[in-house]
Amino acid sequence: MTRRTGPETLRRAASPARLLTLAVLPALLPALFLSVLAVPGARAAESAPTVILSKKEAGKGGEITVSGKGWRGEALLMLLICGQATPERGVIGGTNSCANGTGRAVTTDEKGAFSKKLPVAEPPEPCPCVVHVATVTGEQASADAAFTVAGHPTAELPRRTGGGKLAVLAATRLEGDSSLLTWFGAPPARRLVFTVGNLGPAPVEDPVFEIGTAHGVYAPQWEERQWRGTVAPGARARIALPVELSAGAHGDYQISLRYGKKVLAEQPWGVGRPWGVTLFWVLLCLVVPAAVFRIGMAVVDRIRPRTVGAHRTAGARPGPAVSKGLPRRTTPVARTARSAAAGDADATTAVLPWFTPDSAPSENRPRPTTKGQA
User: Fold this and answer.
1) Which string of b and e fits 39-71 if b means at least 16 CB within 10 Å?
2) How far apart are CA 257 and CA 209, in angstroms?
3) Is the separation of the CB atoms in 209 and 172 below 8 Å?
């Protein structure tokens, strides 16, 4: 008896394997799902920046070694000892609570690791204290490590108001105009106006915002601006913060608003060129050579030698003060012409007898009265 093979036979042979796969697959799905979720979490934990201290406590004037890993490669970091802060709540008062005068800067290696010695100093705020490490340029990242400054006062942290959550409800705008001094290079200044609302269950008191100014491809430079007031839960408030650029700034700038670690809004700002400075330099390049030329010509005219004839002619020339106030002498035109003709005749011919007006032959000769009289 011959055994036939065909599609029906193959389906019958594969049916037990299919049943086994269908039975095992539901049991493997949860483990596969958990492994997929665990891999990004492990990678995030590995890439999170960390800070390690050589000592947990030291007195003023001492020195500790701060090291870390998981940072961005070749990034510039800032190391500070800050008061009124914990790793859980961060630096509550911002960098104003840190000993900025003894801070240090360090650049990470290609793998994102660093090690730097940091002198111990007393921060302006009481402990609990931390060693605060944050990036200076590029993508913002920070980490804190608990530290105790021996002999420094200790106080309780301010009441937590973290239940409040601020959000920008309307578009931001820049208010203000440039003055005449800005046209000559004075620092441009504006006010960043925006409306925030408290979406959390707790009030927000005296929030500290950060204003960042970026120009071109450079990272924004952040400055803290504190607003005095309270935003109740569910309420809104209109806030105006001053923004000022450096002297002579011009071009396209990007103004950013940040609260906590979240950027709330960005506003472009086009600053015109201070043409008054250009005009000043152009006038300076024209006026200075002209003034030097005039001074040089005056010096040359003063020191050059003068001839004797020119001196006499200049001395014999009557000045305007002598003839001023004297009556002007008028001479008839006809008499002047006759005098000029007589002078020319005297110069070319012999001296002729002079006839007065009464003895002129043409005037004393009697006219003929009858025909034939001469």
Assistant:
1) eeeeeeeeeebebebeeeebeeeeebebebbbb
2) 7
3) no
Q: What pLDDT score does 333 carry?
A: 47
Spatial distance between the Cα atoms of 97 and 226, rounded to a whole number of angstroms: 14
Residue 36, pLDDT above cutoff 50: no
Helix (H, G, I), strand (E, B) or coil at 63: strand
Contact between residue 68 and residue 116 where contact means Cβ atoms under 8 Å apart: no
Of 142, 69, 82, give the one whose Cα is nearest residue 118.
Answer: 82
Give the span between the Cα atoms of 148 and 166, in whole angstroms: 32
pLDDT on residue 114: 95
| Cα distance between residue 255 and residue 270, in whole Å | 10
- Enumerate helices (H) and strands (E) in the chain, giving the number of each: 7, 20
Please tell me the predicted confidence (pLDDT) of residue 308.
Answer: 58
- Mean predicted confidence (pLDDT) in 343-359: 53
DSSP-derived secondary structure for 221-240: EEEEEE--SEE-TT-EEEEE
| pLDDT at residue number 98 | 93
Please tell me what DSSP assigns to residue 134: E
Tokens of 211: 């204003």
Q: How far is CA 45 from CA 80, 86, 352, in A?
A: 24, 20, 136
Distance between alpha carbon 88 and the CA centroid of its chain, in Å?
Answer: 36
Question: Three-state DSSP class for 245?
Answer: coil
Helix intervals (H) in 6-133: 7-47
309: tokens are 């004839």
Residue 374's pLDDT band, with cuts at 50, 70 and 90, is very low
Task: Quick: pLDDT tens for 87-137.
Answer: 988 888 778 889 999 999 999 999 999 999 999 999 999 999 999 999 987
Residue range 196-235, pLDDT digits in tens = 998 877 788 888 999 999 988 788 888 989 898 888 888 8
Burial class (CB in 10 A: 0-12, 13-18, 19+), 118: buried
The encoded tokens of residue 75 equal 């990034």
Burial degree of 198 (CB within 10 A; 0-12, 13-18, 19+): buried
What's 149's DSSP letter?
Answer: E
